[in-house]
Every structure is written in structure tokens, then in C-alpha cells.
Amino acid sequence: MALIVQKFGGTSVGDLDKIRNVAERIARTYDQGNDMVVVLSAMSGETDKLLGLAGKITGFPDKREIDVLITTGEQVSISLMVITLQSMGYKACSILGHQAGILTDSSFTRARILDIKATRIKELLAEKTIVIVAGFQGADKKGDITTLGRGGSDTSAVAVAAALKADKCEIFTDVDGIYTADPNICSKASKLDRISYDEMLEMASLGAKVLQIRSVEFAKKYNVPVHVRSSFNEEEGTMVVYEDANMEKVVVSGVTHNKNEARITLSKVPDRPGIAKQILEPIANARIGVDMIIQNTRAGNMTDLTFTVPKPDFEAALEIERKVAEKIGAEEVIGDSNIAKVSVVGVGMRSHSGVASKMFSTLAAENINILMISTSEIRISCVIEEKYTELAVRALHTAFGLDAS
Amino acid sequence: MALIVQKFGGTSVGDLDKIRNVAERIARTYDQGNDMVVVLSAMSGETDKLLGLAGKITGFPDKREIDVLITTGEQVSISLMVITLQSMGYKACSILGHQAGILTDSSFTRARILDIKATRIKELLAEKTIVIVAGFQGADKKGDITTLGRGGSDTSAVAVAAALKADKCEIFTDVDGIYTADPNICSKASKLDRISYDEMLEMASLGAKVLQIRSVEFAKKYNVPVHVRSSFNEEEGTMVVYEDANMEKVVVSGVTHNKNEARITLSKVPDRPGIAKQILEPIANARIGVDMIIQNTRAGNMTDLTFTVPKPDFEAALEIERKVAEKIGAEEVIGDSNIAKVSVVGVGMRSHSGVASKMFSTLAAENINILMISTSEIRISCVIEEKYTELAVRALHTAFGLDAS
Question: What is d(CA A322, CA A163) in angstroms, rounded to the nearest whole number?
Fold first, then answer.
């Protein structure tokens, strides 16, 4: 007997038939003698439908009110799930974010969990009730409803699992698990049985959209074993856990790509102290996140500065930099949204050398020009022209010995 | 400057255009310098749509979960209203039932309000924010979401008005006010400018569906002046207030009818003490409400007992009484769902005599047979054959001098 937290996403509860399928899956695990807490997302499409309504009223709806609006989606799915489980003869009860004691800060639409008082959930578990928790939502200390950002239900699930000291946290999704590369572009990609929290963090931040990045941070911080698996079959998925000695034997665990960035270059910038701040501060003030930054030296006390921003913020960032360029006397602002970032990730890099040079030579062998480079302890990323993305991923996947045999 | 509570029903907020119209109406009242609290229902059709989903899962969904499900309707309408008001430049904030401090008992789907701690609403009013409150919902002392029954938003509005000691409570609806009879069947019906709480209570319980009956009880108990008026025009509607001397001058204020009851007769019941209890207790145990009861004496120590129940409960009640009849040795159980109740209501009856005989003679003059009679201090009701309903209402309306000139 174990305490298991399961999370099902929107596509898994998209209609009453799918809700019934999930209910049967929950029931099977419960019937094996486990205590069950299940976190649900809104039925697929609901959140976007509600945001669409607000968007028809104004382009800038208040974030507090958006959270009041969109949290109704999970409220509907949890009550329908409980009604379904009860109709099958199971004891079940729905719990909203604030009822679950999920306390967050007041950053509406992207709140962070501060604490979970899972008192009510524990009471229900003690009487063998299956607890169905609304994902994605919490409440701040005033009692206002907050949401945790896109994919926030993952974080709800991991946080509840941490608060309850659950034996495991299963994230059911529409993929089988974490792959060595995106199977849509790399047919030789294979599913990983295990991956470390750190690798998963790098992969999540690089565009592998399986888990919300905060949920992985939470899982790492509270040592919650997370099992990412398919809601459509019974196969084992990928365990996200602390790294172990076996993991280090593999140099690279996966190859990821991200087409969601664009780069901006200011050329012939006067090279003086504080210039980078003058260029990047207005971007930060506009709440645009900068990923990579590169500064090249030119002859004649001049420099070029290049950085990347998310594609949706590209035009706004370009606009800002045109004004900055004028002010600081830079020659030109060049924007390029036809780029992609390919990365190799692996905790094995900590103990193996030569990974970077192997990556660069692999790309060179395919005649792919590297535009920018950035690295972390367990990752090397290269920005390349977007059109080479798939080729680069496949070449790296082969070069690092990841191709399924 | 006054503190005004307004309530808008589902048809008034049925789509974004209608929400905009209501927002403009709220804004006009606010611009006159008033403090504003507005209670909203769900967008029309939403509650039924959600109940339909639950009904597809099981015929007997859990009431606690139903309340979790259907309260999302009001949550959507209040957030959309606030976003609309803000887009027009007004300070507004949405408040859910539990955030408004609306404490109820735990009778899910038909909870009663126990107390309102309107702390949060008062804080918002102090900073001149327009407060948009979710109608129909509250929370019990465990924090579980409850609903107040169909039409419960009326009660939310009156209860909030009482808690805030509001200057007035305006109920906006799809009718102009309270009429002397249903204008659909009596073309000479006219709108009442004023009606007493007691008359309104009798009318509401008799089938005039304008206000939820509990809202009137609340208004009477806390002396909240309620203004029932149209959301589609600016005309004055009907004020529901304490009775005054002027009201007593009018003998009958209105004629109402109710086609939603059926009657059941047990004939040749042995006439002995306790027999009525034996007949009616099983009905009460099945939570079926009995309205009128009549017992006639027959020759030979036998009696007939007749009572009325709501039409939706007719078949169930008939089934119960067939078993009862067998047990107590009654000869026959006769059911009749083709009946209607017509009533005349007026506080003036307290000081005028001859109202009953005038009613009976009016019906007799139209050859309408009276099947059952019941009275209160300010009401006389007759059960007649259903097919005579419209004729009876019009004849009584004329006889009591209510026809519009």
C-alpha cells in the first residue's frame, strides 16, 4: 500500500468518455490498496475558450480577474470526475486549490506556491476517500484565486506529493515519457527509462514541453520521484529522479531543440563600461526574458552585442533596441527570427571531456554554421539557422550514440 | 449618495454584448455618486448545460459535487463583468460567495444563508471599487461550496443588501415588475407600483416566479426595500416594502395561478384517529411537499382524504399512496394532474369581509366548479379544473376591480 499522487492533463479529461477512462484507471490503482490523490487540468480547450472571451472584451484584461475566470475549467473537470467515480461506487471528493490549502504569492496568472497545508486532503485520505484536486490553482493570503501558469497542474501535483510525502507522483500525459530527442523529427529517438532532475530541468527549459519547469524544481527540492507516462496505455514511462552513478556513464542523455527564440544584434556599439546594461535593461523593464548574450570585439573601440528573446516578444524588443541604438550611437539593429537552438544535455558531461568539440565538428560536417554558443555544467547549446534544425538534431543524436538499435 | 445593491439575472448577462449593456447601466448609477455592489447570475443556459453534463454520467449525482460544478457559471460571469467595467475605465473587483463571507448551512443545492461577514466587500467599497459578487453561492463552515437553489441570486442580493444595510436592493429581471396577474393570460393586468412583503411572499409561493421566495423572507426580516425592475429599460418597476395604510384600501392586489400541482384522493378511508398521519407521513418521508389537504366525512364511519403535491412528484406520491391504501383498507386512490390553483391575494383582506364569497360567486357565474379551497389571512385559493385557469384569472381580475382602465 502506497500513497500515490496522479496528474492527468486536459486531453486526458477532454470529454465524458475520456473522464470515464481516467476514472477507471484511478479505480484500478485504488483497488490495489493505494491511497489516491489525483490532480486534474481543465478539459482540453476550456482555458483557451475562456481566455478568448476575455480577449474579446479587451486586449489587456486584469490578471486577477483572468484567474477567477480560467480556474472554473478545473472546477468543472474535478466535479465531473468525482461524479463519475461515485457512479462507479467509489468514495471520492473534489477539492479546489484554496480548499487544498495551496498558498501562493499574489502574482496572478503565474503565481508561485509558498506553502501547502494539506489538512483537508489528509482527513479525506484517512477515511479512504479518493481526493480529486483542481490543478493549476491556488489562493494568496487574502484568499484571492491565483493560477500557476501554463502547465501549472504539473506543479500542483508535485507540490501536493511533496506536502503529503507521497510515495510517487505520476504525471499522465499524451506522450509515453521523455525521449532522447523529439520523435517527430528524429525517428531513431528512444524513450529514457530514467532521467535526473537536473537533466530534466535543462530539457524543460530548452523546449521539451512535457513537464512545467517549476514542477521539476519542486520535485528536486523535495525529492519527489516523478513518473512521466502515457494516459493512453499501461507502459512504464520515464522516472525523473536524483542522478545516480549509472546516469554518469552516459555522456549525453538527449538532444533538444527550440525554435521559439529570435536574436537581435546591435552592431558597432561604442565599447565603454556600462554599455551592456544600457542595452539590456530596457528589455528587462519590458519583462522580456533574455536567454543568450554574446559580445564580440571589433576594431576601433567598437563592439557588436547579440542576444536572444522569445519569438512572441521579438517585435517589441526590436522596437526598444532601435531607440536604444539611437541613444547610444550604435550603427545598426539587426533582427533575425529564423534561428533555432539545438542542445545536448547530460549529467555525464561533468566527468567526460570533448563533448563541445564533438558537437561543433558534427555540425561542421553537415555544413551547419554556428551563430551563437552557450553552455552550462550539463548542457551545450548552439544557435543555428532554423532550416537546419531537424538535420542538426538527427546528426547529433547519431554522433552521441543515442540512435535506437 | 447611497449604497445600492443591484442584481442581474442570467438573461441580462447572456453574452458579451449584454454584459456590456449591464456594465453601462452599473456605470451610470456609479457615476451618480453611489457605492455599488452588483450580484450576478450565470450566463443564461450555463447552469443547465453543466447539469446536463452531470446528468449524462448518472441520474443521481452527488449534491456537493453538483454545487462545485454549477457555481463555475457565476464565477465566469462576474470575472467577465469586471473585465468589461475595467475596460471602460472603472475600478471593479469580483468576489466569490466564500470570499464575500456568505456562510450557509451544508444543504447542498438548496442551502440557507446563516450569516454574512461582508468585511472584504466593505473594504472594497471604502476605496470606491464597484464590487461584483457571484450570486447563488456560498460556503459552509468547512469551506465547501454551496448553492442557494434556483433563483438563489435574488437571495444573495437581498442578503448582501441586509448585511451592508444598503439603501436599496434593485432586482433587474426580464419583466417590468410585479403584475396584478400574468399579462400573458390576462391582457388587462397592470404593473403594481408597490406591494407588501407578505403579499409578495404569497404570490411567490403561488407561482409568480419573479423573486425567489427566500429573498422576500430575507427582505422582510431585515427590512430591505426591494425594487423589482426591467433590465431592458429605465422604467420604474415594483417596490416590495412593508405594508402601509394605502395598501389596505385595496382589497385584492393580485390574482395568481399555479398549474404545477396535482391532487391525490384516497376514498372510503376508515375514519379513525391517526389516519391522516398514516396517509401523509410516507409522503413527507419521501421529501414530497404537500400543499392543500381536505378531509370529507362520508356516511358509515368512512372519510375521503384529498391532498395536492407538486406535479413532478405526482407519480411517486401515487405509488406511495397505493401501498398506504392497501395497508389501511381504503377503497381507492384517485390521481388527477389536470388541476390548477387560482388565488386572490391582498393585505386589504384583513380589514374587508366578503372576499371569499365574491370569489366563489365569480367562479360560479362562469360555471367553474371549485374542487378544493384553502385560505390564509391575506389569500384565498381555489383548486379548479386546469382548462378553466385563464378564464378564472380574467374573471377574478375583473370582479375585484383590477382591470387596467
Answer: 48
- Cβ-in-10-Å burial (0-12, 13-18, 19+) of B398 comes to middle
The string of pLDDT tens digits covering residues B71-127 is 999 999 999 999 999 999 999 999 999 999 999 999 999 999 999 999 999 999 999
Q: Could you report the average pLDDT of every consecutive run of 10 residues in chain A (405 residues)?
A: 94 95 96 97 95 96 97 98 98 98 96 94 97 98 95 95 96 90 92 93 77 91 94 91 83 93 93 88 92 83 91 95 93 94 92 90 95 91 96 96 86
SS3 B107: coil
Nearest to A159 by CA among A224, A213, A107: A224
CB pair distance less than 8 Å for A96 and B71: no
Q: What residue ranges do the domains of chain A occupy?
A: 3-174
Retrieve residue B348's grid coordinates. 386589504
Map grid coordinates 460567495 to a residue: B97
Domain B3-174, CATH homologous superfamily name and number: Acetylglutamate kinase-like (3.40.1160.10)
Q: Is B41 left (phi over 0), alpha (psi -120 to 50) or beta?
A: beta
Chains A and B form CB pairs within 8 A to the count of 102
What pLDDT score does B66 carry?
97
Using CA atoms in the order B286, B290, B296, B298, what is the torsion angle rounded to 10 degrees? -10
Point out which residues pair with A273 in neighbouring strands. Answer: none
Nearest chain B Cα distance for residue A94, angstroms = 7
Residue A327's φ and ψ, nearest 5 degrees, are: -65, -45
Nearest to B80 among A57, A82, A98 (CB): A57
Do B72 and A69 count as a contact with CB atoms less than 8 A apart? no
Residues of chain A found within 8 Å of residue B89, distances taken between Cβ atoms: none
Spans of chain B, pLDDT less than 50: none
Q: Do A96 and B68 touch (CB under 8 A)?
A: yes
Q: Do A56 and B143 lie within an 8 Å CB cutoff? A: no
Beta carbons of B341 and B274 less than 8 angstroms apart: no
Predicted ipTM? 0.85
Q: What are the angstrom distances between the C-alpha of B286 and each of B293, B316, B318? A: 17, 9, 12
Angle between helices A152-164 and A119-126 (to 10 degrees): 70
Q: What is the mean pLDDT of chain A?
A: 93
pTM reported for the whole predicted model? 0.86
Distance CA B198, CA B206 (A): 12
Which three-class secondary structure state does DSSP give residue B150?
Answer: coil
